[in-house]
Amino acid sequence: MRLNRKKRYTYYSSYSPSRRSKVRWDRIALIAGAVILILGIAVWLNFSRIQLLMKGYSFSQQNTILSLEHQAVDEILSHEKMEHIADWIEGSESYQLYDDYEKYLSLHKNLKQEDVLKTVNNIMTNYKPRFDALTYNEEQLWNILKIASIDDLNYLLAHEYTYSQVEPYMSIKGFAIGDLEKYIKVYNEKKDYRYAVLSVAYPFIISENDNGDSYIIQNPEHLVTLVKKGFRYPSSYVPSDLTKPSQIPVSPDCENAQLRKEAADALTEMFNAAKEEGYTLIINSAYRSYEEQEKVYKEIHDRYDEVTASSLVAIPGASEHQSGLGVDLTSQSVLDDKRNGISSRFGDKPEYKWCIANAHKYGFILRFEEDKAHITGIGNEPWHFRYVGKDVATEIFNNGWTLEEYCLYKGIIPNIKKEK
Ligand SMILES: [Zn+2]
């Protein structure tokens, strides 16, 4: 029996609870309890330091923060880590603003620490209460502070603009707070926020606002590029895919019937559709190089003067004919009249009427209409069509826009560089 028991004990020695191991567990529990108690006291005594550590503050930052009164430490702990906390503590006693300093610096990274302190103190003391009165909440005020100078804040307050009056324009490229009054004026007429901002930011797109500045187009191959007085192609620009539409007749006066491939194909499609309805369209003029335009312009310029010349012919670089997307059309009926000694104009013919009703289906727009000369800068040219692609042309047609208006409504601003 004894032997048996001993044997069993030996067998289970590595598993079974024994008197000896029971004693060991008691001791461990006691030690663990003591350690937990000591740790607890240590944590309690250093709780703030541990929280600061968890937020990522360095040991020296912890020391700086812990030198403040308890309330300030709690305030700091209630925010995300402030990288420049030592600067804020050194520069200001208003610990409630430390987070604002940090936020303001993160939005205006180039500012010096003392400027951040000065500006934020000024904003929070003198401006925030007035924006509160205009019902700006914290987030809205900070959205404004992202972009606003002190002058801008004064402007908003002077006009008593609420956040909901400012907000719709803010995300549009070219937005400037000081132009809000102008935006609102345009918006009231056009009912479009983007149009409002862009027409103020790029006033010269509309010809009547032309201030004489000149820009060189940097993306000349873009299908919807605005080319006109003030928006010129580089003299070196020649479209890479000029093609002569094979099936369309060309008038005897036409020197170059080439268009960019896409426009040439579209015009062929348009020609065939017109033909089916009994109308024969003729190309009167298509691609014109910078040099050719220069020659034409010079002839007129020599005969008259600069003002007259630029009203009759596009100045070199500013003609849609250099784009390979502009085409002057006429009709067989006009050529027949001419042969018979009768003077007639394409704009009076049924072919023209067919074109203005149908050209958009093939990607073309009538570029210069009489009542839009203040926008396009060019008077009535019933013969000049511009290729922009079917979708764009249809949208322009359906809305009764000019290409300029399309660019402003849709935010298609030409990639331009100011000419010196
Ligand atoms: Zn033309």
Structural commentary:
With 420 residues, the protein is an alpha+beta fold. 53% of the residues lie in helices and 7% in strands. It has 21 helices and 9 strands. It starts with a helix and ends with a strand. The relative contact order is 0.07.
A few lines on this structure:
The protein contains 21 helices and nine strands. The chain is α+β, with helices and mostly antiparallel strands and 420 residues long.
* CATH topology value of the domain at 218-418: Muramoyl-pentapeptide Carboxypeptidase, domain 2
Radius of gyration: 38 Å
Could you say which structural class the secondary elements and strand pairing correspond to? alpha+beta
Unreliable sequence segments: 1-14
Given this structure, which CATH class of the domain at 218-418 is correct?
A: Alpha Beta
Strand content: 5-15%
Average pLDDT over all residues: 91
Elements, N to C (H/E): HHHHHHHHHHHHHEEEEHEHHEHHEHEHHE
Task: Label this structure with key terms.
420 residues; alpha+beta; disordered N terminus; three-stranded mixed beta sheet; elongated; 21 helices; four-stranded antiparallel beta sheet; binds zinc ion; Muramoyl-pentapeptide Carboxypeptidase, domain 2
Ordered list of secondary-structure elements with their pairings:
Layout: H1 2-12, H2 19-45, H3 47-55, H4 59-66, H5 70-77, H6 85-91, H7 98-107, H8 113-133, H9 138-145, H10 150-159, H11 163-170, H12 180-190, H13 193-201, E1 215-217, E2 231-232, E3 242-243, E4 259-260, H14 261-276, E5 281-285, H15 290-303, H16 306-312, E6 326-331, H17 332-339, H18 350-358, E7 364-366, H19 373-376, E8 384-387, H20 390-399, H21 403-410, E9 416-418
Parallel strand pairs: 1-2
Antiparallel strand pairs: 1-9, 3-4, 5-6, 6-8, 7-8
Helix pairs in contact: 3-4, 7-8, 12-13, 13-21, 15-16
